[in-house]
Known about the structure:
The structure is a homodimer of 140-residue chains. With 140 residues, chain A is α+β, with helices and mostly antiparallel strands.
Amino acid sequence: MARTPxxxxxxxxxxxxxxxxxxxxxxxxxxVPKSVAFWSAALGIRPQPxxxxxxxxxxxxxxxxxxxAIQGVDDAPRYHLDFETDDLDAExxxxxxxxxxxxxxxxxxxxxxxxxGHLVCVIPVHSEPAEFVRAARVWP
Amino acid sequence: MARTPxxxxxxxxxxxxxxxxxxxxxxxxxxVPKSVAFWSAALGIRPQPxxxxxxxxxxxxxxxxxxxAIQGVDDAPRYHLDFETDDLDAExxxxxxxxxxxxxxxxxxxxxxxxxGHLVCVIPVHSEPAEFVRAARVWP
Lengths: 140, 140
């Protein structure tokens, strides 16, 4: 998803912030067209391609409060959540300290498997910076 | 999750409404304690048992705009979404008409597998009725 540049002066560098920002509907590549057709009709939303990131199809307004998109993957279907953060290393370390295991990295994303077995990605902030600062939790 | 009684006079019976209301973090039963511990610490939320529905642990405020809970299941870990609706039959039929397959029923819930492979449950309205009417989509 498109990243919004961040003004570092907005943040107190002694802490970091995070929040659940994004719901991804991960779909096997050959199922993407029928998945996009279903979700857009089921939710009454016009799907939008994401410029420069062809694997994503955005579903704007699908779920109140969450960026929602379909992602074509070379894997089984699943949902996953993204945690957006202003400090990838600190947030990944925090979640690993709570029992998550880092499974892989992809571009700026850290892909973690959390206790209970679910996948979570830690990603750079992609919300509007002021909205992120307003809504995110602050971690020491 | 607790159900709020609905005043039928709020609804136009010629149509029905639905919206994505709930994110369930389904966890194998023996993993529930560690999953609850992780998610509550990761999100900074005090988990709350759900009276009369021991399989659920609510995570109030976890995700803006979505009811969020951990559910113990006799199955693999996964996330799933609930569509709340004022007409279960009409909403299930609508989604089936879009390609979903009904996999099972559990109490008032219809468990559907949608195109692309994801699970969705269709459930009775559990939000406050006025909030539901405000936020839900109307379907003919």
